[in-house]
Design goal:
Distance between the termini: 33 Å
CATH architecture of the largest domain: Alpha-Beta Barrel
CATH class of the largest domain: Alpha Beta
Shape: globular
Bound molecules: zinc ion
Helix content: 25-40%
Oligomer: single chain
Number of helices: 19
Structural class: alpha/beta
Strand content: 15-25%
CATH superfamily of the largest domain: Metal-dependent hydrolases
Amino acid sequence: MARAGIRLGLVLAAGLAIWLIPAEGGTAGADLIFTNATVRTVDSSNPSAEAVAVEAGEITVVGTNQEAMAQRGAETTVVDLSGKTLIPGFHDVHLHAVEAGRTANGCYLPSRLSARQYIRRLRGCARRQRGEVWVRAAGPFVQDLLALAIEPRDLIDRAIPNRPVVILDALGHAAFVNSEGLRRSGLDTSDRDPAGGAILRDSGGRPNGVVLENAQNVVLDAVERPSRQNRQANYASLHDAIGKLSANGITSVSDAGGYWPRQHHLAWLQLSREGKLDVRASNALWVYPNRSLQSQLHRISAIRDAASGPHLAFDQVKLYVDGIVDYGTAALTKPYLHRPNWAPGGKRGFTYLSRARLNRTVAAFDRRGFQIHLHVWGDRAAKMALDAIERARRLNGPPNRPHRLTHLYLIDRPDLPRFADLGAVADFQLGEEAISPGYERFLRGWIGRRAAAHLLPIATVLRAGALTTLSSDWDADALSPLKSIERGLTRRGSPERIPDPATGLQMVTLNSARLLGQADETGSIEVGKRADLVVLNGDPIAVPAARIGEIRVLQTLLDGRTVYRRP
Ligand SMILES: [Zn+2]
């Protein structure tokens, strides 16, 4: 079906409809026409088509070959897609683009090595990073290092005594530091935990080298102090990440890192200035629980207001409500059945902020027009987040763009309708490990069989009428949106599956565009929207669900300009 197949404009004035005369033959015509395509528009009023025309970065025709070809001019590039699929650009509304490359640049340490093996590998890392001040590595879980007979601090000291060392854990919720690292972070003599974090201690009360949740940010802010070198490393990481996004058909993102004291935002600004930002970005800036709210309101608003560039905004703030179940720091409504004896918080878990401080913070940033991006693992955290959003709405009225809870492993049943009632978005990531039957088995002993069976309750939330999105959490998880859809459709042994591929596709396109407040510009293939398009070698709506992840991105366009072409 043709929608505005011909370039006509309809003006409604004083109840009168006036058809403007089209510029037929008066212009050079379309810049680009795709023909013979399987177009999956994600527009419910016009779900499929065979051709699309683009002019000046905007979609001008979605219809038949004939309708599109009517726009052909002397300069038009016509691409016969011979049955290949054309979809709107993917949106990935929760990922860590600046951190991605910086983690990978470090030295990888696997799980469950012996103390001797960790020491040997760490010495190798130090040799390879000779030019750096800090030695950086990543990989193990807290449990791996605490299982050894030696304190983590002493283990790393034994490997590298003279330089500061930081090892990021496997889950992004802890870090391991040696004595010199603790000293440089100002944590060596501290006898108190920073707000929102915890420092594990040896039997003598000294920090044992394990820092959890927000305490790791104290360390990482010391590792990545403002400097030219740090800026360059962030820039290189982001530059590399943008290429990977385009290769995966991703044209709009929301970066959830936003560690402004580590100059993350400067990498985005530099790429934007250089005209190399091949995605639209609506990024978050992270609100520290251990810094004053007033100073952060001031600072974060200043960063937002100074950011300019056609595709770049820092219009979200990121808050952690709780941590992660694997360290007993997810906040649950019911007590844990089992929890590590070193886990901070109480038997219902841990929160970064008190209820009062969370409420104040959400209301204050909401009032300034920020979109709130809340890390939520457990059902108690989800409840606190929804309460804070509800209170902000009462004080400030409805927000321009919906606030969002991300991760959402558990939701208490009475809270389900509150998403739709409050206009809050439920944003899920279905990482391979997180939806594996093995992980569910592991969690049964910690949170109970019933809770473990309804992990990441995506089907329940959809039925409750919430605006629901699917994102990657890259580089904590894999990047491909097609793989995410496949996982959602094929979750083994879980009732919480995405009902059909069209819903999955909508979650990574139109729903995400709605979350970002840009659905009038992106998220579907419709006349008048920007030509953010992806050519695929298979049709995600038609192939068997288990094969969606095998579909390859052949070409990605942003504003009608090719930003990726598969070699
Ligand atoms: Zn994340």
